[in-house]
């Protein structure tokens, strides 16, 4: 090569070319970005068209069934509880055809109002024809809705992200396989927030899902589409996932029941995770329904040999009916506040009124003090979630349109570590709670730090369980987040996860039960709410839950790991005493 060994001569002309090269590079960069955005919008628009096509196919199926003269009694079908519906289907006094099409019709009606259904699963009609009457298992003929991130063969699991469009699942998730084996019929998928990491329910693909009780409020997230559909009567049983309240918050916001079992009690194989690889906070799969008996029946159906064979990582522990059905008085710990986030007057009242009803029913209630919630949230949860420096989330969002409701979350992930540390020092004199969170958001961990963190989390869990056992508790009663946030607030209130994510960290089963509604007195007391610090978070929370008279309130019920049936037992007892009070 002739130029080897020769010196590169820099002439004045080169300096004249450099500005032009820089300008061309900038133009090229902008052009590529424009093309990327255009491609993204085209993919999203195609997904929306496909969704409308699926809903029209669902509508045609309902109309054809009605025109066939076989349909009848949709209103009476929709009014039945899950247990009543199962009984009628088992006795052949109702046909699975009638039930499925009644719920398909109602789901269509509901989603026009709430925007909660993202996909129709037409395979349900084939499954309907193949239902075996020889062995009518526990969920024979029961229509089931599933969250967007649950794999169903031939359909996308988008998580509200462009990245996962046009990537249909190659097989059903284990949960879907077991549901089918038990005779259940999955028929629709439901909406989620973009990335699954929000208590809102909006994404650039499918848009905003609204709360069935107030369309200016969120149904919660990330299983928000599920909760909205069930609460409005468009589904009788749904499957969601929970890494920090994603089942419990939407259930509470929409006034239904939901349980996050112990992690790994139900198979998560075939669920697309929000933060794959994260191992500090335990995700879980669980059901949502209108009442506790429905949750118990679903758990009973899923905890079977089929699941244990399909996913050997699930402990082969069948449902313990004896524990769930026991009438033995319980020793119940309770608290009104977790020491990190002061609950609203309505949240506190829901706990105290339920405590009193449980005492009147013969149970023993004892005060319980949560262990160092703020430390656990910052040192364990926050550090665990940002251990990769936000790389996983940002890779998933690359080339996507950001949902404006999540701009705070995405800003945190994209902000350089050094800037987070600067924010900590700047905010510390004015907002110490927010400042401390910024500090730990800036501490992405090395491998050795992650190992130390795992050891510290295990020690915390052991201490928490030790405190629980020292108090000789069976179960725990505590606040559930609520009432439902105004749309646009959820993205600014990630810190309210304190009441939920702590039980993912501890891997305790936890569920919510609606017990009351917001009163005018609650609303009046909210005017004086200042929280712990009267900082931006407290003020945003106050604004986000104001004007909520008549909206549902729930409480949270908790048990020790693998005692899911005991958690359900407390939930059913709470449901019983509150319903009894309403009838008096």
Question: What is the distance, rounded to the nearest whole angstrom, between the alpha carbons of the first and last residues?
Answer: 98 Å
Q: Tally the helices: what do you get?
A: 22
Mean pLDDT: 92
Low-confidence stretches: 1-5
Fraction in helix:
40-55%
Q: Helix/strand/pairing class, anyone?
A: alpha/beta
Give the strand order of the largest sheet, numbering strands 1, 2, ... along the chain: 1-3-2-6-8-7-12-13-11-9-10
> In percent terms, what proportion of residues is strand?
5-15%
By DSSP, the count of extended strands is: 13
Shape: globular
- Strand count, sense and closure of the main sheet? 11 strands, mixed
Q: State Rg.
A: 25 Å
Can you tell me about this structure?
- The chain is 47% helix and 11% strand.
- The chain has 584 residues and is of the alpha/beta class.
- The strands form two sheets. The chain has an eleven-stranded mixed sheet, sandwiched between helices.
- Helix 7 (224-231) packs parallel to helix 8 and helix 16 (417-427) runs antiparallel to helix 17 (432-441).
């Amino acid at each position: 090569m002739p130029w080897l060994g020769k010196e590169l001569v820099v002439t004045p002309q080169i300096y004249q070319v450099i500005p032009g090269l820089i300008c061309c590079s900038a133009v090229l960069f902008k052009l590529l970005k424009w093309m990327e955005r255009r491609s993204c919008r085209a993919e999203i628009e195609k997904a929306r068209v496909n969704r409308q096509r699926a809903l029209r196919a669902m509508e045609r199926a309902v109309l054809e069934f009605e025109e066939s003269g076989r349909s009848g009694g949709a209103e009476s079908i929709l009014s039945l509880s899950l247990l009543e519906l199962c009984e009628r289907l088992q006795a052949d006094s109702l046909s699975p055809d009638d039930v499925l099409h009644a719920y398909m019709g109602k789901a269509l009606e509901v989603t026009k109002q709430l925007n909660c259904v993202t996909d129709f699963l037409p395979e349900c009609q084939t499954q309907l024809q193949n239902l075996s009457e020889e062995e009518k298992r526990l969920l024979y003929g029961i229509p089931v809705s599933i969250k967007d991130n649950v794999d169903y063969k031939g359909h996308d699991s988008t998580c509200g992200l462009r990245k996962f469009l046009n990537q249909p699942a190659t097989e059903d998730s284990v949960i879907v396989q077991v549901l089918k084996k038990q005779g259940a019929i999955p028929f629709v998928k439901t909406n989620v927030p973009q990335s699954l990491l929000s208590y809102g329910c909006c994404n650039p693909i499918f848009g905003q899902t609204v709360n069935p009780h107030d369309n200016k409020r969120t149904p919660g997230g990330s299983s928000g589409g599920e909760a909205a559909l069930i609460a409005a009567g468009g589904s009788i049983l749904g499957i969601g996932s929970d890494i920090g309240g994603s089942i419990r918050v939407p259930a509470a916001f929409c006034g239904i029941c939901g349980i996050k079992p112990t992690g790994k009690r139900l198979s998560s194989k075939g669920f697309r995770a929000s933060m794959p690889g994260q191992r500090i906070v335990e995700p879980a799969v669980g059901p949502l329904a209108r009442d506790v008996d429905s949750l118990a029946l679903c758990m009973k159906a899923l905890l079977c040999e089929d699941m244990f064979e399909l996913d050997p990582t699930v402990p082969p522990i069948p449902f313990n009916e004896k524990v769930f059905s026991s009438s033995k008085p319980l020793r119940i710990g309770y608290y009104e506040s977790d020491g990190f986030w002061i609950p609203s007057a309505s949240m506190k009242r829901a706990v105290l009124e339920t405590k009193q009803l449980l005492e009147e029913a013969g149970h023993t209630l004892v005060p319980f003090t949560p262990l160092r919630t703020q430390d656990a949230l910052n040192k364990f949860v926050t550090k665990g979630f940002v251990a990769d420096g936000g790389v996983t989330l940002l890779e998933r969002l690359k080339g996507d349109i950001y949902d404006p409701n999540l701009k705070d979350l995405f800003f945190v992930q994209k902000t350089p570590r050094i800037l987070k540390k600067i924010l900590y020092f700047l905010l510390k004199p004015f907002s110490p709670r927010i400042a401390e969170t910024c500090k730990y958001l800036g501490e992405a961990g090395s491998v050795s730090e992650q190992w130390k963190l795992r050891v510290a989390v295990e020690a915390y869990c052991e201490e928490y369980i030790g405190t629980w056992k020292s108090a000789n508790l069976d179960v725990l009663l505590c606040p559930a987040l609520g009432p439902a946030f105004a749309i646009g607030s959820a993205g600014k209130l990630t810190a309210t996860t304190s009441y939920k994510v702590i039980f993912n960290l501890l891997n305790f089963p936890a569920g919510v039960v609606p017990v009351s509604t917001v009163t005018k007195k609650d609303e009046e007391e909210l005017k004086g709410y200042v929280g712990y610090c009267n900082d931006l978070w407290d003020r945003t929370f106050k604004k986000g839950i104001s004007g909520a008279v008549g909206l549902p309130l729930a409480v949270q019920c908790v048990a020790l790991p693998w005692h899911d049936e005991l958690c359900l037992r407390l939930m059913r007892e709470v449901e019983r005493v509150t319903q009894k009070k309403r009838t008096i």
